[in-house]
Design brief:
The structure is a single chain. The protein has 683 residues and is of the alpha/beta class. The protein has 32 helices and 13 strands. The strands form three sheets. It has a six-stranded mixed sheet with strand order 8-13-9-12-11-10, sandwiched between helices.
């Protein structure tokens, strides 16, 4: 079976180079000639009869080395001339050869690199080239020497080019693997998929090849205003990018980290667009097997850097840095590759990560910027919901958008996908919420925030130690935000509700934390979470509320472990230095650290509803006026108790029966401290 002229020319050219080497052992020379003679008909090559007789077959027992050596010395020049003639009769493989030649030149690599990359490319495209490479490696290895023989270059030069820290791997034009063959499934080298897919295509000029290799610049689907909740960080990213590009600076690396779907990738796109940069995505090309391994992603990144080295206004986006972080340190067993990649990158690289705990500090300290991106607050989610709903033609009212934003603590990506689901299903607000909740549970186990049991905070439903309406007005008028509150009292008296009401009055987002959100299992973990909470509140300009404060500021005189004291100290230190309002609520004031109380700007006690507040509660929750005296004599009820009674009454269908509603409230009262009255079954 004959082979193509191109393959015949390649094989004969490679064998000619092998035989031209004067240092090849005699047994290796015979092995290659036997290999060629067995394919003489395939390649239309007729070796001299003396040499055919002398070499025997691959496994011939009658072979005599002395006879072969004598015959080969006489026929060597003739064989090489025969092979050279056959090679010159055929054209080189095009457009493969020209594309590789242009790439090597563009990347500033020596001409010998063109031959090496060409060998790897031909290995995976021509079967007989592959078989010849394997044969040469078997008798003339190691691999680097065998490759040097086939490309006709000094072994030392080839070794330097293909070493882990050599020009070819660090240019991204060759990817290093763990194999012991030239290329292929068990190969040591591979051409990155992005490059390999373009090598067999014809282009009018190199600019067209350049564009095909890079792909189209990434386009953002969002607006700069969608990141108003991180305006300071957003502006810092834009300013650094602009300054770096204007100065032509090297080694600019910006890392955005945070939970999946928090908008990291989109922020890089919109920041690049704002500066006027073309942002190219690296590390996302898939291989023929359907996925990219870490080494291939890294090679693709390096190649993109080299290809863009002369581009004036370009940047690179690389998602999921943690996926290749270990490769960055492992490559070549030294920091040479790392330094080149992160300290000498010619264009800015914008990295994203879902988990920086998997990234070595040696990499993190090389970042120009490292910015955490969290899920947007409710007010920002409203803007995103409104804009994305319009884009997907999903009809939502302002009230529905406000409700969704309050209930779904979702990232922009989840909101986007939920609205897509609603569009495809033809649904409305219910479809959006259901789709978002499903994704949220899958990602983090998170569910929707429960709606408040009382629609709006009512100052007349609170019995506090100070006049809350006066205090609220004074705080709003004063304009000072660096104050702290301690709100104590029985459960359900409206402590957290008042804190949220005050935040709304001051036009601040609410960041609410429970003790379970902050207390960690390991020493130092709680302190870190406390610090993170204050930092998050500062970055998002939120009113910070700590529920169950007695678990966070417990009496230090009763502490038995050192970390119990440091935890309280950490909380108090942050509280005093915090520039925004912070509020602590507790049902168990007697467990609070007494020395901590003087640190609070205000300490307000919430008590049970008095007679006037009880009348108000009957009206708010049940629409009842002229309440019977029995209902106004209950002295240990809270707004939360009325919310509970309302739900019971609605289930039982008695919400408009005053006598039975009072009976329900009496039962609730009797089950609490200070309760009184008879308990009866509500019929």
């Amino acid at each position: 079976m004959a082979v193509s002229d191109i393959e015949r020319g390649l094989v004969t050219r490679y064998i000619a180079r092998v035989l031209e080497r004067g240092d090849l052992p005699l047994r290796a020379t015979r092995y290659i000639l036997v290999w060629l003679n067995e394919r003489a008909e395939m390649f239309n090559i007729e070796l001299p009869s003396p040499i055919v007789k002398a070499i025997g077959t691959m496994y011939s027992g009658g072979y005599k080395a002395s006879e072969f050596e004598k015959a080969y010395r006489k026929s060597r020049e003739k064989i090489i001339s025969l092979l050279r003639e056959a090679a010159e009769e055929t054209d080189r493989p095009e457009p493969l050869a020209s594309n590789i030649e242009h790439l090597v030149s563009e990347l500033g690599l020596p001409k010998s690199a063109w031959k090496i990359v060409g060998l790897v490319a031909c290995y995976t495209r021509y079967d007989q080239v592959q078989y010849l490479c394997d044969a040469v490696t078997e008798v003339a290895g190691p691999l680097a020497r065998a490759m040097a023989i086939m490309v006709g270059e000094p072994s030392r030069s080839v070794e330097q080019l293909i070493a882990p820290s050599g020009d070819l791997p660090t240019s991204g034009l060759l990817q290093l693997k763990e194999g012991d063959e030239v290329a292929g499934y068990s190969g040591r080298f591979a051409i990155p998929n992005r490059v390999n897919n373009c090598l067999d295509q014809t282009y009018d000029n190199f600019d067209d090849l350049h564009s095909a290799l890079l792909g189209e610049p990434a386009q953002s689907r969002i607006e700069l205003g969608d990141y108003d909740h991180v305006a300071l960080d957003r502006e810092l990213i834009v300013s650094v990018l602009k300054g770096a590009v204007d100065a032509g600076a090297e080694g600019v690396n910006i890392l955005l980290y945070g939970p999946p779907g928090s908008g990291k990738t989109e922020l890089t796109k919109v920041a690049a667009e704002t500066v006027g940069l073309s942002l190219y995505v690296a590390g996302e090309e898939i291989s023929a097997s359907g996925e990219s391994d870490r080494s291939e992603r890294l090679s693709d990144l390096v190649f993109s850097m080299r290809l863009l080295a002369s581009a004036k206004r370009s940047a690179i986006l690389f998602d999921e840095m943690e996926d290749v972080a270990w490769q960055l340190l492992r490559r070549g067993g030294s920091k040479v590759f790392l330094n080149r990649l992160l300290e000498k990158n010619p264009v800015p690289v914008l990295w994203t990560s879902n988990n920086i705990n998997e990234i070595d500090p040696a990499l993190l300290r090389r970042m120009t910027l490292a910015i955490e991106l969290k899920a947007p607050p409710a007010s920002q989610r409203q803007k995103i919901l409104r804009r994305v709903a319009e884009r997907h033609d999903v009809s939502l009212t302002d009230e529905e958008i406000e409700t969704l934003a309050a209930r779904l603590d979702a990232t922009p990506a989840i909101i986007e996908n939920a609205l897509k689901a609603a569009r495809y299903s033809g649904g409305g607000v219910e479809a959006v919420e259901r789709a978002a909740l499903g994704i949220m549970r899958a990602v983090s186990g998170q569910t929707a925030k429960r709606p408040g049991r009382i629609p709006e905070f009512d100052l007349k439903l609170s019995a506090a130690s100070v006049k809350l309406d006066n205090l609220t007005s004074q705080l709003e008028a004063g304009g000072k935000l660096n104050f702290s509150l301690c709100l104590s009292g029985p459960p359900g008296t409206g402590k957290s509700a008042y804190a949220r009401h005050l935040a709304h009055t001051l036009n601040l987002e609410v960041l609410q934390k429970r003790a379970s959100d902050l207390l960690g299992a390991f020493v130092g973990e709680s302190e870190k979470r406390i610090a993170d909470a204050f930092e998050e509140a500062r970055e998002t300009k939120s009113f910070l509320i700590f529920d169950e404060a007695d678990s966070l500021l417990f009496d230090r005189s009763q502490a038995t472990r050192s970390w119990e004291i440091t935890q309280v100290n950490e909380m108090l230190t942050w509280m005093e230095e915090h520039p925004l309002p912070v509020c602590f609520t507790t049902n168990l004031m007697d467990r609070m650290d007494s020395a901590s109380l003087r640190r609070f700007t205000f300490h307000i006690r919430f008590d049970y509803l008095n007679r006037q507040a009880l009348e108000r509660a009957f009206n708010v929750f049940f629409g009842m006026n002229g309440v019977h005296e029995d209902g106004l004599r209950l002295e240990n009820l809270t707004p939360g108790d009325f919310a509970q009674a309302r739900k019971q009454a609605e289930v039982l269908g008695i919400s408009q029966d005053m006598t039975k509603v009072i009976a329900l409230l009496t039962d609730i009262s009797r089950g609490k401290p200070g309760g009184f009255g008879t308990v009866g079954f509500v019929k």
